[in-house]
Specification:
Length: 402
């Protein structure tokens, strides 16, 4: 079980790493079998310190204070800044504020409203461009709403170019110890970051894109990105920023994602047949079972696919519920925009699933490759031939849309 620990990342700039291997679902929604990290930071200048964020209550206040005491006497903390209010970072803020009455709790005006009601505290509102000082050092407030809460902001440590980015640039995965981007297997890390983006952040992707542009416009000399989850970036800032921008734009690869549900294995067999056909035309075909416990990789594959194919049985004259759930996530998370979608439906004798699924795909703002195919029981050899033709035309149309 990874333990809380800290690491110096700059001149009197410390990363308090709070790994969480207990929580099973992030936001009680997204499975996180590898856990997640909460990152808090402490910036100082001899006599005065500024604390950024706290942790989810997976650690208690004594453990958190012990971590601070390993660096500095907590009474030296002059400012506590919450970059947004979500309780994975603000869980301990009420207790800390009461234990450190001389420290000023600050955040955006929007976050102040939330915190007053959630934690019975009296924070001070800061606004875009404000400077918070600790001794001779200053941290600039960069107001960046909707990453992914409406109340979010960044802080920029001017003398060392460290940008504290809250949930932006984050990733799933609890860390054994605080590590930089060049100290991890970065391709594996990117997978965790993509899963995090595709589930937690993606609905606000245009805001994230706007905020990346704002950082560029401000002309900040960023040498380090310090997010609220995941690793701290010092060598791969540009690479990761460009990758995240491509996710924000839902940039399509030559890839199709097939999502199926199957009660007794027949629809799964059909889904595997579709994969074999699609592979004739498309370099990468991802196959996902809608009933799988972990939905994150399914959304992550949909994120950069040119096309999505749903293969579903009929259930009580309706869409098979796990498929219906994924379609709902697609709508809520706005993951379908600009994607070409197709569907193949199996049924025993009745139901109107083709119309239902077409309507759900439209709600998810997908373009539909028509018609929705429908088969009684399992397709005959001749019908499999027709499906083959349909899939080849679907893959061609999807790739044309790149
Ligand atoms: Fe990591 Fe929006 O909290």
């Amino acid at each position: 079980m990874p333990k809380p620990s800290c690491r110096k990342i700059g001149t009197e700039a410390y990363w308090l790493s709070l790994p969480d291997a207990e929580t099973e679902r992030f936001e009680n929604l997204w499975p996180i079998p590898d856990g997640v990290n909460y990152n808090s930071y402490l910036i100082g200048s001899g006599r005065e310190y500024l604390l950024i964020d706290s942790s989810k209550k997976t650690v208690n206040i004594e453990e958190f204070l012990d971590l601070i005491k390993s660096i500095v006497e907590p009474s030296k903390i002059k400012h506590i800044v919450m970059l947004h209010t979500e309780p994975d970072h603000s869980g301990l803020i009420g207790e800390i504020s009461r234990l450190l009455p001389n420290a000023t709790l600050c955040s955006t005006a929007r976050a102040c409203t939330c915190m007053k009601r959630m934690f019975n505290v009296e924070p001070r509102a800061v606004k875009d461009g404000d400077l918070l000082t600790v001794g001779s050092r200053s941290l600039r407030v960069v107001d960046l709403p909707w990453i992914h809460w409406p109340d979010s902001m960044f802080l920029y440590l001017e003398d060392e170019g460290i940008l504290f980015t809250s949930d932006a640039f984050g990733a799933f995965g609890a860390l054994e110890k605080p590590v930089f981007d060049d100290e991890v297997d970065f391709p594996s890390y990117l997978k965790q970051a993509k899963d995090y983006f595709s589930t937690v952040v993606v609905a606000h992707r245009l805001m994230v894109l706007r905020d990346i542009d704002k950082i560029k416009t401000l002309g900040l000399n960023v040498k380090m990105l310090a997010p609220a989850h995941g690793v701290v970036y010092r060598r791969k800032i540009q690479e990761f920023t460009e990758t995240m921008a491509s996710w924000c734009k839902l940039e399509k690869k030559r890839k199709i994602t097939v999502v199926y549900g199957s009660m007794y294995g027949l629809t799964e067999r059909l889904a595997r047949f579709t994969v074999e056909v699609l592979k004739e035309k498309v370099e990468k075909v991802a196959l996902h079972d809608a009933t799988a416990d972990v939905v994150n990789p399914t959304l992550s594959d949909i994120l950069d696919s040119a096309g999505i194919l749903f293969v579903t049985p009929t259930y009580e004259a309706n869409i098979f519920p796990p498929i219906a759930h994924l379609l709902e996530l697609l709508r809520i998370k706005r993951l379908g925009e600009g994607k070409l979608a197709a569907a193949i439906v199996t049924k025993l004798w009745g139901g109107n699933v083709p119309t239902l699924i077409a309507s759900r795909l439209k709600e998810a703002t997908c373009k539909i490759h028509e018609p929705v195919c429908e088969f009684l029981n399992y397709p005959s050899e001749q019908e499999l031939g027709n499906i083959r033709e349909f899939l080849l035309s679907f893959s061609e149309a999807a790739l044309q849309g790149i």
